[in-house]
Amino acid sequence: MPLPSWFEVSAFVVLGAILLADLAVVARRPHVPSIRECSLWVAGYVTLALAFAVLLFLVSGPEVSGEFLSGWITEYSLSVDNLFVFVLIMSRFAVPRGSQQMVLMMGIILSLVLRGACIAVGAAAIERFSWVFYLFGVFLVYTAVQFLRGSDDDEEFEENLLVRQARRLFPIAPDFDGSRLVTRHEGRRTLTPMMIVFLAIGSTDLLFAVDSIPAIFGLTKDPFVVFTATLFALMGLRQLYFLLGGLLDRLVYLSVGLSVILAFIGSKMIMEALHTNDIGFINGGDPVSWAPEVPTAASLGVIVVVLALTTAASLLRSRRTPDVPSPGTPDVPSPGPDPKPSVSVPPDPARD
Questions:
Q1: What is the per-residue pLDDT across 35-79, written as a single tens digit (0 to 9) for each?
Q2: Is residue 207 one of the residues assigned to a domain?
Q3: pLDDT (tens digit, 9 = 90+) per residue, 10-38?
Q4: Is the pTM for the entire model greater than 0.85?
Q5: Using CA atoms, how far apart are residues 123 and 56, in angstroms rounded to an integer?
Q6: Domain span at residue 93?
Q7: Residue 76 host element (H or E)
Q8: What's the CA gap between 286 and 284, in Å, rounded?
Q9: Residue 339, domain member (yes or no)
Q10: Distance between CA atoms of 82 and 344, rounded to whole angstroms?
């Protein structure tokens, strides 16, 4: 049963209000949240997502509810993997601990805007061109291989073209000025390193969307379900960053699990495209009836089992391996005073 318009509008209004309230809390009292505070927020957002799945079940039935759960779990897992990059960006630019909440929250808002645009474009492309599912499926399988090949590599954040150009075109102060984006340095108005951090996280989020949006379209074609699953996956990501902290280094097999999930979804998309095939050089332009069809319940089961196994294997390995401090781990042990970084923005070789 299709979702009624009043339900979709009401959902967007309520979820938008929750995000604005979360942003207001961060803007009013920027601080390093405690483990208890983070745990309560993350548990609250997870509970809210599960309650939303129940509402979808009551309003539209088990199929839509199952698609939402599959999409939400997949996007949430990809978001956890994205936290590794957030850690590297925070470390690279020496963001003060008290400002990290604001950086993460603004990054999440920007990510929602960018992913919303990607969802709109993806939905329109799927509606108009049937061959897009082939393209998405092959891309996800390729991405899965890249995940697997890079799972054991030491990652290091490298500034992309947008960040490098911003540093060359605009004057940037050497130190942070709280959460300000513009400040005065040596008598002139300059950007602060916070602006560069926002650009780095925002542009990185756009690259994340290229992976995650095709993945969730492989589980559901409903733009509303796609967007709400993505929204719930990003809600609570800020608190999850502080909650996991050094535990991120222990999830050593997360990339392996994500590669399996992406390969599975990519293969599923290709199979679905074969069912509605109209491309002339494939089976003479006729649908391929023998291609297996994967139900939503099976997709949800595969995703949950793979994530459970990779998480258990990661924790088991971490127990057998001595703890080694990671340079990329966020330093958030307590809400103490922020140490002033000696160099907030790495020097630009082009200016030397």
A1: 788 888 889 999 999 999 999 999 988 999 999 999 999 888 887
A2: yes
A3: 999 998 888 888 777 766 766 677 778 88
A4: no
A5: 20
A6: 5-322
A7: helix 62-92
A8: 6
A9: no
A10: 22
